[in-house]
Amino acid sequence: MNLFPRASVRSINVYARLAAFALAVPALVSCQKKAPFAMPPKTVTVAVAEKKDVPFYLDEIGNCTAFQTVTVQSQVSGPIMAPIHFTDGQELKEGDPLFTIDKRPYQAAVDKAAATLAQDQAKHDNDVTQLKRTIELSKTKVVAQQDVDNAQATADGSAATVQADQAALEQAQINLNYCDIKSPIDGRASDRKVDIGNVVTANSTQLLLIQRQDPIYANFIIPESALPLVRDFIDKGTLKVQASFPDDPSKSRVGDFDFLDSGVQQASGTVRMRAKFHNEDRLFWPGQFVKIRILLKTLNDAVLVPSEAVQVGENGPTVFILNPKDNTVSLANVTVGQRQGSQTVITKGVNAGDTVIVTGQLMLFPGTKVTPVPDDKAS
Q1: pLDDT, tens digit (0-9, with 9 covering 90-100), for 322-351
Q2: Across-strand partners of 223?
Q3: Phi, psi for 337 (deg, rounded to 5)
Q4: pTM across the whole model
Q5: For the chain: N or C, fewer Cβ within 10 A?
Q6: Beta bridge partners of 196
Q7: What is the pLDDT of residues 84-93, one digit of tens each?
Q8: Any idea what DSSP says for residue 144?
Q9: Pairwise CA distance, residues 163 & 145, whole Å
Q10: Segments of the chain assigned E as strands
Q11: Residue 364 to residue 371: CA distance in whole angstroms
């Protein structure tokens, strides 16, 4: 015989389940409190601050110009004759032939001047002979003194004529020589402006442009505020100038200061300067823009860190420094100098040999424990 109704048995099962759940919940909570979750140390890249000698400089933008530029023009008029003696873009030496002007009319002028000189020279020789005879006759009182004076004047006049003829012959010869147009300097030829058969006008028609590229100039400007400092190093004779390409700093060359303008440009508050660079390999080209670095002096034993290590906070530039004993970090306020490639000079706040955090500074604070990894770029 069943002592409990069916509903009562069902109630007892529900109560049993609730009791088991109530006992399990505290046990679960107890397990969670025993093992709290902990974040692993953050991975950062590090580099060692190094000490070395670096330049102190000013950076400007410059423009290259040829050391010498000549616009070649004909000094006589006439047609261009074949052949043309150079190719466009050729490297020329002083005295190399370029063009030839038709020589025939100028050769004829030389021949005519030479004939006139010979004729007048013969007349002068005869006048001198007559003068000598007249002088001899005057000694015997056969001729009057007036005849001697007349003979002397005739001889002097013909002598002057001979001198004029010699000058005319020399001028004709110069014009004939001008028919052979030669390079006046060492340099690179542009494309020719005339072809064979063109008739050129003396001192008017441009035939060719020649630019000497070795050495080469770089022109640039500095602000008026930097003038006293630059002049100080110019006076000491220690000023050097480095030129490089903005998109490829590895291609650079150090040259010599060459020119400082005599005054400040009032409109812009700047001063023009120029440097000279050797350019045998044609690294630089006239008209090309370059990055100019004015090397003023050398900073000895400067402390450098990768530029990425320098962060800017509320109190200015800062650098995180690693404590190698426990791999914790500290924050140092620093005084920043000039950039040197991928590095930056630190004048205060970091010592040579300190290990600095290069990347991974986000969410770091003093005392944070990190996992340091050497920075490949710094190494």
Answers
A1: 999 999 999 999 999 999 888 999 999 999
A2: 270
A3: -100, -150
A4: 0.71
A5: N
A6: none
A7: 999 999 999 9
A8: -
A9: 27
A10: 42-48, 50-73, 78-81, 91-92, 97-101, 180-182, 187-189, 199-200, 206-223, 240-245, 248-260, 270-277, 289-306, 311-313, 316-323, 328-333, 335-340, 343-348, 355-359, 370-374
A11: 12
